[in-house]
Amino acid sequence: MGIDDADTIFQVVVNEQDQYSIWFADRALPAGWTADGTTGTKQECLQHIDTVWTDMRPRSVRERVSS
Amino acid sequence: MSQQHELESMTPEEKRALLAQLLDGSAEATPSNLSLEQRRLWMLLQLDETKPWQVSIAVRLDGEISQAAMQQALTSVVQRHEVLRATFREVDGHPLATTVPAVALRLPVIETDDLEKVVANETRTRFDLAKGPLVRASLLRRTGDHVLVLTLHQMVADRRSAKLLADEVLTKYTELVDGTAQDVLATPVDFHSLVTAQRDWVNSDDATKDVDYWRDQLAAIQALELPTDRPRPPLKTIHGSSITVPVPEKLAGCGSEVLLSAYVAVLARYSQQRDFAVGVPVAASWHEDGANLVGPLENMVPLRIEVSESETLERLAAQVGAIHAEALTHSRLSFDRIVEAAQPQRDLSRTPLFQTFFAYDEEAGSHQALDLPTTWTPHDIDLYAVRRDTGLTLRAQYNTDLFDQATIERFLGHVLLLLDEAVASPAKPLAEIPLLTDAEHDQVVVAWNATYAEHDRSATLHELVEKAAANNPSGIAVAAGDTELTYAQLDGRANALAAELVSRGVSTESRVGVLVDRTVHSVVGLLAVLKAGGAYVPLDPSYPADRLAFIVNDAQIEIFVGLRGAVDVLPKEVAGTDRITIPTTDVTADKPESSVDTGDLAYVIYTSGSTGRPKGVAVEHRSIVQSTAARSSLEGSGLPERYLVLAPLTFDAAGGGLYWTLSRGGTVVFPTDSEVLDPRLLGRLIRTRELTHVDGVPSQYAVLLETDLEARDSVRTTVVAGEALPPKLVADHYRVSPDNALYNEYGPTEASVWATVHPVQPSDADLPRVPIGRPVPNAKIYLLDKRYNPVPAGVPGEIYIGGDGVARGYVNRPAMTAERFLPNPFGAGRLYRTGDLARYQADGTIEFLGRADTQVKIRGFRIELSEIENVVLRHPLVAEAVVTVREDQPGVPRLVAYVVPVIGRVLTQETLINHVIGQVPDYMVPSNFVTLEKMPLTRHGKIDTNALPAPQQILASGFVEPANELEAGIAETFASVLGLQHISATADFFSLGGNSLLVARLASQLSRENDIELPIDEVFRVPTVQGIARVVETHQRERSDVDSAALYTQQVAELVADVKLDPSIKPDGLPKANWFSPKHILVTGATGYLGVFIAVELVNRTDATIHCLVRGESPDAAWDRLEETMRKYRAWDESYRDRIKVVTGDLAKPYLGLPKEEFDRYCELFDSVYHSGAIVNFTYPYEAMKAANVLGTEELLRLCTKKTLKAFHLVSSVDVFMGTGAERPFTEEDLGMKPVKIPTGYPRTKWVAEHITVIARDRGIPVTIQRPWMITGHTKTGASHDTDYLYVYLRGFLDLGVLPLYNDVINAVPVDYTAEAIVYTSLREENLGKNFNITNQEPTTMTQCYQWLRTFGYDLNVVDEAEARRQALEVEEDHILYPLTPLLRVASMRHAALDPDLQKAVDPMDECRVLTEALEGSGISCPPVNEQWAHSCFQFLVDNGYLPAPQDVVR
């Protein structure tokens, strides 16, 4: 279940800046991150992130620009 | 009946017959009386006799002890076990055992409480294998009790036997004391029956099956690579120590398999390996009673274990149990046979197959064994789990050359920690068990990351610069070439440009392409973008169009900023983008309205991506502001007053110095392109600008240190980053600039320039690696394993970086960003995953270990290329080195070393191989060394490994014939030992099927045949016919040349004693004379053959007056001698009268024999000195020529360093090689201090004079050393040297009517070319400090000369060389050959170095590369030596009466 093992199951996580990352599915979430509900292999999670993380600006920047 | 008893009754003839049988038979068929285990140990003993292969046991005894009864018990037990009465000796490479009928074993009583001292003494005291007995006993009388200590040699006992013996002795003792003693029973089976049974079995099908089993089981096994505290010695050592820890009561129930599994799991963590072997002991199984027999019967087998960390410890233990059980069914095969079956690559730095051992001992019962101190140990680490009545303990024995005690203590702590966790939570996978104690976890995660430091977290990057500008408006902010910008100018222009950008719509998150170069204007551009609220993307206008287009599109650049010239020529691929020119004149403008937040994007820097497409790293203000603020931690060595920014602005490294300096009000200095390329110009820039700070990549800095030899005293801080810092560079740095602080920095662009820094200490030069230090202020470093768990100190982990410097991510790469920027479970923010490996030292300092994903493996060996590089770099003539793995032939990866020699020096492949061999294991010796003028660099100044050329000479796997008789003989021995037909001279003994047993035989045979002692480890080091031939030659040469090493050492000392130069001869502070357009030149030796032509060449090539130092009664007499000599050599011209003057003096006298005031006048007058003068005589002793040839050189150097500093050109001689037994090629390197042969006479004077000149050079005196080869006739006039010994020979032998037959190479170099080369090279600055060999790249041979003599008309009677010598030695005193008879008496006329076959093997370019390069473009080259030339030389000699005309020779 290493970080590079093909069969390790990850979950897609997001922080308060709307930045995406991956985290081990069987571990508690680090502070400041929430799960977006997707789990799968690293490849599957990263593919999901590629489709959902369309605006890579941090939330604070996005909000400041639009205000 | 054992074989031994038969031997004793054999006649000498019978013994010889048996020996012949022993020597010729295969190993299995050998009727040796040693067991296989004994033979293996015998082999090891031959490798190193100093190792204490013995085993001790100590047993505590209560109460009164009868010494007599103990002695009696001991004697009867030793008598009972035949093997304890054995002795061993070697007969023709084979060990033979002899058993004596009885052994008298003493039992000394020692009154002491110091058991440790007794045991240490036992370990030091060696057994005499040939004499025996191989068992010792002593009785310690301590306060309150006794201790019986038994020590046995491992040829006769193992650990198990020692306990057995102690048990038997004590049982017998009790019987004797109780009066119940019975007659001693014979052992149920004797040792030699077991040996016979073993030998029978070895030939059985069962044995074959076991061989197959182990071959399969151990296929491609890899060595366990535990991270060591010190570099692993290339030859394994056994220095050891041990630590014992009690196993807590709650874990005492763990069985042997669980303990072994916990051990293996921790080893896997430390090594980052999942698949390796651990050795375990196996009891003797040859006879049911074998277990009760004393003897070396214990075998070892490797347990190959694959550790899956997703399993629980329980599961692993079950697997280990199964593997162990299976191994036991194949454990009759002795360990050496298992090694042979598995054929691992030989590696003298490690034990084969396994490097760690585990044993579980139950010692509950009759006697109380005591723990003994360990002073040696066979493996890297061995773990003994010992269960006694008092409880379970773990004892780790470890090699003290590899590990510190603290490391092993930590290691044992980790084993117990893992056991504790696994026992408490049996369902937990191993991977879930952290190896850190809570305290260690806190230390690495928290304490070593306590980097919090205050700085203005609300500031933006440009505000840092604006603040400095407000404080110091007239200070110089940026300088490049002749252009300088003050802070006011920089800020004003940037404001104006920013306003323009805002007006064009640039705002938060806009990306602006800035076309950067090394002008001050680029900084205006960067700053303007920041002020406008956008993010800059620095781009090099010379990028290929498609790369530019890709970035423009990827970063969504809509507007470009640059100098007019650059924006105008942007390629059409980026059409459609807006373009603005950076103002290059002063404009005053207010800062435009823009609101910038610290979370906004500051810049995007593109780096090369592994996928081949560049990727943009997006960095926010807060990150680069943190990175810049953290620089204050380097200000102990001074503020960045004037900082040299060497990296291009497209590279994030440039940002480090740029913003540090601009935020502190200092001056950023950009070098010009030519200054970047030429380190000497760069050095000049540093001096003229008085720069205080310099940064760069280590390889760049190394070039600067090497080529710019003047001091750079203004520099107080030097920062290197970007690649590993070689320890040698540390030494070089502190040697030339001890007061200049050196920092080794580490950090990827993704962590905003830097993440760690190490203030480098001079002592770091001695480390295997220079650390990268600790995290910089507000940065965090986590070293994590594959499970994302922190690793403890000493264990490698991948570097993850946290803190404020972590970048936002990769532009337009959500997946890649998510993959590399991960949640931080230890604190806030994200961690950047670097892909770099590192480990903590015990104090938290971080050591960089390389890339996690580019680990190199060749033939199954993990190789640290940097390790080899560091070894190569230790050669004093190596300036830079890179080692890579090439696969030019598919499937055949090879290590290739690329080397840049120190300027002006030459290095041969052989020199380098000899240097590396012995410092690293054989598999790490590069197969090729390629010498380069300079390393190819990428645009960022890193070494461009892709551009390194393929080595031309590929060591083909083809067949190489033995080159000479010696090699042929060795090849034959290889063939007979291996049972093969033909052996290539380059084939590896082990890859041909050689093994440890065969190598012992090979060494023994080769030793006999060549009458030398060939150590076995030499065969391991160079296991080819060629390699061994070299070893044999070396040994033979050593023996024939000097009576002993001591004599040689003494002779070297005598030789070197004359290598000294008066300390007052030094260049310090002297004005430089006119070296390259001299007005007055001194030439010595102008009445000699070469000297004449040097003087003439100087007349023709310079405008100088040539002053010739000539001996003479009066100036007129001196002049006459000079003119006469010049006329004789057809070199005279009347016009020379105005150009040449004589100085009447004598080289052999102080101040050249000149009056003091005249000497002083010349000190002011001369610009340079050509020292060609010497007494040349091949029969005089050294002392007779020393005054002129050696002391004369010193006097001239004195002249060179008085009043002015003059250039000194020493004319040396090829005899510095010929007279010292040097091996060809004779390169243009400096001479070594230890010649193979101690030179005598003339060559000795030249050797010493060269070394003196080198001292002068190293003190800073401008010199060249010119080594003419065999100087021969002038190409235009045939003018030849009549007293050259070759012509003397010729004339003498012609007179005798015979010519000796020998075909030496004649490296004839025409005198005119020799003089031209000397004069041309000496007048060019770049040649100062160099050595030149003036050779002919197309030499001729003696045979060819004879042919020319025949065509000239001589009727030659060529006879055997010995016959010619015999006749020559009989000549009368008035014969021309007579003075040469002392030489002819002691030596052949042949010279080993002039062998024509050797000539073919030498690349002539290797002997004159420096000269050839120096003459490039000069039009000067060595003319061909041909018949026409030879005839003109002979004619000259005939005309001058030195040779008889052909028609006058009467036979």
UniProtKB/TrEMBL annotation, chain A:
Cellular-component GO terms for this entry: cytosol
Gene Ontology biological process terms in this record: siderophore biosynthetic process
MbtH-like domain ranges (all copies): 1-51
Xref: Gene3D superfamilies: Structural Genomics, Unknown Function 30-nov-00 1gh9 Mol_id
InterPro entries on file: MbtH-like_dom, MbtH-like_sf, MLP_fam
Pfam families per UniProt: MbtH (PF03621)
UniProt protein name: MbtH family NRPS accessory protein
Organism: Lentzea tibetensis
TrEMBL record, chain B:
Pfam family, one: NAD_binding_4
Example GO BP: secondary metabolite biosynthetic process
Domain of life: Bacteria
Single Gene Ontology MF annotation: phosphopantetheine binding
CDD domains on file: A_NRPS (cd05930), LCL_NRPS-like (cd19531), SDR_e1 (cd05235)
InterPro entries per the UniProt record, alphabetical: AA_adenyl_dom, ACP-like_sf, AMP-bd_C, AMP-bd_C_sf, AMP-binding_CS, AMP-dep_synth/lig_dom, CAT-like_dom_sf, Condensation_dom
Keyword entries, A-Z: Ligase, Phosphopantetheine, Phosphoprotein
Domain Carrier: 961-1036
Keyword Nucleotide-binding recorded: no
SMART domains in the record: PKS_PP
Necessary cofactors: pantetheine 4'-phosphate
Official protein name in the record: Amino acid adenylation domain-containing protein
Source organism of the structure: Lentzea tibetensis
Lineage, opening ranks: Bacteria, Bacillati, Actinomycetota, Actinomycetes, Pseudonocardiales
